[in-house]
Specification:
The chain has three domains: 3-50, Rubrerythrin, domain 2; 144-195; 198-329. Helices cover 46% and strands 8% of the residues. The chain has helices at 84-88, 104-114, 129-139, 144-160, 164-177, 182-194, 197-201, 213-223, 225-233, 239-267, 287-294, 306-318, 322-328; strands at 3-7, 14-18, 26-28, 35-41, 44-51. Strands 3-4-5 form a three-stranded antiparallel β-sheet, with no helix packed on it. Strands 1-2 form a two-stranded antiparallel sheet. A hairpin with a 6-residue loop joins β3 (26-28) and β4. Mean pLDDT is 79; it is low at 53-75, 93-99 and 122-130.
């Protein structure tokens, strides 16, 4: 079996033909449906499109590669003429075009004259420039301010309830609206220090004494980031309260740590296992590491208010228990 590649002389369609198949008198193109003469000379098959055939529509499937012996009977088209009764029943809309002899310009002018032109309304009162500016301010008042206050309120409620996932969601939305709003940074600083973030990350960690001074400074700077940002964007009247509250949380962490050490010591006794607030040197042996971390509070780690923060820490140390205050007075 050998295949010959042929082209339709009518549409140029490409198809294959078996050379061993018996030769037919004509061939039907599977693409356009036209018929062509088949001639074979010296083993070469040629197609000559001299016999016009019926063209198939696009929706019809291509005919098989077999001769089409079907034929049609051509008849003359029958022309139907309308009767007078049918013409009378036609609606009045169908009328000869020659009845409307008015030019198109007159019709357009008549339609445009029927529609009255809009006259500009002139008000008797003349608005001053100040009134228009005030109106623009009222119209252009952003709704982001009320939305920001609502988000800050919801974030504060979530912080009071210690719902940290909800607080993180509200705080991110609030910071997206106004990155310079100090309220979110204040709340973040308070929440982190309530969880003893400064103590756990710096002086109370196991490897604090093994760190280099540069690494210790980096850790202290990282823990003071929220405080520095809150002081940077807050008003001057708010800064003393923020600093004093932060200093109270730092000293509270140290007192809680020393108290826990005293309680663990008392629990090892056979009698008098309740800790009554009498600290020993063993209980406050971590005070040296605590002082080491507080001495790193400088202009580099707290550029916003390092002197004010150290002053607030000294005030809170003076309010601590006598044994602890005496040990930390070197600050």
């Amino acid at each position: 079996m050998s295949l010959l590649n042929l082209l339709c002389p009518h549409c140029g369609g490409n198809f294959d033909l078996d050379s061993e198949r018996p030769l037919q008198s004509f061939w039907v193109c599977p693409y356009c449906g036209n018929r062509s003469l088949m001639q074979k000379h010296d083993g070469i098959i040629r197609l000559r499109g001299i016999i016009p055939g019926r063209a198939q529509t696009a929706t019809q499937a291509p005919t098989a590669l077999v001769p089409d012996y079907s034929f049609t009977i051509e008849t003359e088209p029958q022309i139907l003429e309308p009767t007078p009764a049918a013409i009378e029943k036609l609606p009045d809309i169908i009328s000869p075009v020659t009845q409307n002899t008015r030019p198109l310009e007159e019709i357009i002018a008549e339609v445009s004259a029927a529609v009255p032109e809009e006259q500009p309304v002139i008000s008797d009162s003349v608005s001053t420039p100040t009134d228009s500016a005030a109106a623009d301010e009222i119209v252009q008042q952003p709704t982001s301010v009320s939305q920001l206050d609502q988000l800050c309120k919801q974030a504060a409620e979530a912080a009071n309830n210690h719902d940290l996932p909800l607080f993180n969601a509200y705080s991110r939305q609030a910071l997206d609206l106004d990155p310079k709003d100090p309220r979110m940074y204040i709340l973040r600083s308070e929440l982190s220090e309530e969880a003893d973030a400064f103590a756990r990350s710096t002086w109370a960690s196991l490897g604090w004494s093994l760190l280099t001074p540069r690494r210790k400074t980096a850790l202290v700077t990282q823990q003071l980031y929220n405080l520095n940002t809150a002081l940077k964007f807050s008003r001057t009247s708010q800064q003393p309260d923020i600093i004093s509250h932060f200093a109270w949380q730092i000293i509270r962490q140290a007192i809680d740590h020393f108290t826990e050490q005293g309680q663990l010591r008392c629990q090892k006794r056979l009698f008098c296992k309740t800790f009554k607030g009498r600290f020993t040197r063993r209980d406050i042996q971590m005070s040296s590491c605590f002082l080491d971390a507080l001495r790193l509070v400088s202009r580099q780690t707290c550029p916003a208010a390092h002197e004010e923060l150290l002053g607030a820490l000294r005030v809170e140390i003076s309010k601590a228990p006598h044994r602890i205050a005496r040990r930390l007075r070197k600050l």
